Amino acid sequence: MIMWGDTSHLEALQFPDPRITVKFDVNEEEARQTRLELMCQIAEKKYLVAAAHMAFPGIGHLRSVGNATVGSYEWVPVIIDWEPTRVKTANFSV
């Protein structure tokens, strides 16, 4: 599982285009490059992610979509069954 804090600030902007930076990225170029590399790796390896700035439950996967040169992604949240011993992920396929 990958836990990220400020890797992404706005899902609606930075998942379709991770190159977008915001004023909270102190070093915009470094933040852009880190986001591009990390999101690519997470999607390829199908890592589970615990992410800040995401809607509840804030845990899920990234799926590559659209133009591979831009590196667009969509969020696939886990599905919580509400039985304390069971957590399911959404139907996750590439």
UniProtKB/TrEMBL annotation:
InterPro entries registered for this protein in UniProt: RibonucZ/Hydroxyglut_hydro (IPR036866)
Domain of life assignment: Eukaryota
Name recorded for this polypeptide: Uncharacterized protein
Record organism: Hypsibius exemplaris (Freshwater tardigrade)
Source lineage: Eukaryota, Metazoa, Ecdysozoa, Tardigrada, Eutardigrada
